[in-house]
């Protein structure tokens, strides 16, 4: 899919994703080695966005399995369309049960879910298993199975084997530690907060109206906040939101008033706001 | 750079070193890493670093262990820099500009120069090693703060709201530079220690002088066979110490009380009577990959000496701690299998497989605090390498307060204490820590330190 690490970075950038060297290198290897990519990191650093960008670059369909507490096989893998099956049973009164049964457990009544969808068909796909840590441990077992062989067995239909393996991205906030076995299947990538230069480029790209000097100041303030001992540090998503807010406020540079009034965009907890206000001398006036 | 054959070898030594630091790496990952090297090439060191991290690591917590090890096996340079050693003031000037410009690449090069110029110590420069502490002590980068700040301001980078951020930003850059200096000093020490290693192997030492940390399978087996004879010898020495103690020291209070009848002149010294009960022993053993040879041997030795004590309890940990006294008692017949049995039957790891002293010691203090009392002597066995996690000094303090004595036996040479992720100096401030690199040192220490 890619010719080099630089090629990865360049083509992701065309879609609006600015990859750090670590991100570009790991995406390149995931493609070369044909291994799933496990991306861990704090909220809002672009984990989900990365999968979307890879799909766009590859001209692939993005198949997304959003994990949550209680997600199960019928949501992740496949399910039979019971309503439709019932209709079919009541419609075909003259058949033998055997005939009916063969018919209702056929393709027509199958509801494929993301994991099955991702391994069927010949078109290129990116399978995004988002927030894997939110799912229960049993689902992890299922993922392990699917990601080992890239095949799924539907007892009534037989085994589906991927003819074309999807590019797999799993994301995690590490709210729960994923099992060692699943980790071993994957290449590991930690995305942390970007360095100053990269974050400035992201801001400029996402908020084109903001001038260079202000973008630089925005990133410096965010950097200062991240060095504080806060309950929740502002992420890239918040930096972008703040930049947009400043643009909307028509600010052309930072001052105490504008920072104090818009700090809530960056910090979500009241005690964080208070702490930052004090440390940044915002109540000096 | 080196030919691919050399790379394969360096990769396997890198993997071995990471394993020694408690990172579990299977053959699958090693193969992936080799493929990564082939796909990425060797021209860009940072790309290689990321590629190896992606293939070999499984979690964020392992990265702080990985980076310094990578720096050792894939160093930026080898040996000393080419140019003439610069003077201190010249170096500080250039460092000031690099800090002002936040030029990380330049800061890296200056760190190399700084260690070269100011980090060597010994009778002739660098004959004994390289010290980041000494480098930073001579260079004093923290004193550049005001100068760098004024520079940045003079160049117009200091106006407006963000000027208030400037000093802290510079402080963080100086901190980063200190880290770079530490990495370079570590690399040089390793270069030297590599040579030492070769030198030591050339004169194959006897098994009891082989470092536990470097002992091979055969040498460990030989050591295990030596446990019983060694235990007998030690028992004799302990008995002698016990007799001496029984003859005992003078009990001053009782001697003076007795002297009241003789007008305060102490005529009859009263000897302290030995307590009839034998002391209790508690062992806390790190059994993670890096130090398991040392722990296994020590546990066997203590078990062989168990009738010298009223009670011996043994606990093993990696990042969780569990009691293994029973395994030890029942396993006397099969000393080879001890390590495997402990790994299989005790709960030693939680979410990950690397050692975490803070967690393990904390869990001990919480769950087994009652095992330690005023008659208990506690031995902690391990290298104090915390994998960068919190050493939990409070837990050690708590254990030390309850115990009669706490000793820490560290299988690493004293010179390595405090390097990398070693929290040895911190622990050594709270409890008596001894270097215990081989069986000979161990038996000396046991004979000297075991309570009688
Ligand atoms: N390197 C980047 N290049 C471009 N945009 C980025 C980059 N990093 C983050 N962003 C932007 O930051 C925002 C948050 O990204 P995203 O939702 O992917 O975060 P996440 O890591 O998945 O967070 P969560 O853990 O909350 O799901 C998005 O708007 C994304 O466009
Ligand atoms: Mg997301």
UniProtKB/TrEMBL annotation, chain A:
Gene3D superfamilies: P-loop containing nucleotide triphosphate hydrolases. It holds the Pfam family AAA. Residues 33-197 form the AAA+ ATPase domain. SMART domains: AAA (SM00382). One of its GO terms (molecular function) is ATP binding. InterPro entries: AAA+_ATPase, ATPase_AAA_core, CbbQ/NirQ/NorQ/GpvN, P-loop_NTPase. This is MoxR family ATPase. It comes from Streptomyces cupreus.
TrEMBL record, chain B:
It holds the Pfam family VWA_CoxE. InterPro entries: UCP010256 (IPR011195), Uncharacterised_CoxE (IPR008912), vWFA_dom_sf (IPR036465). Signal peptide: none annotated. This is VWA domain-containing protein. It comes from Streptomyces cupreus.
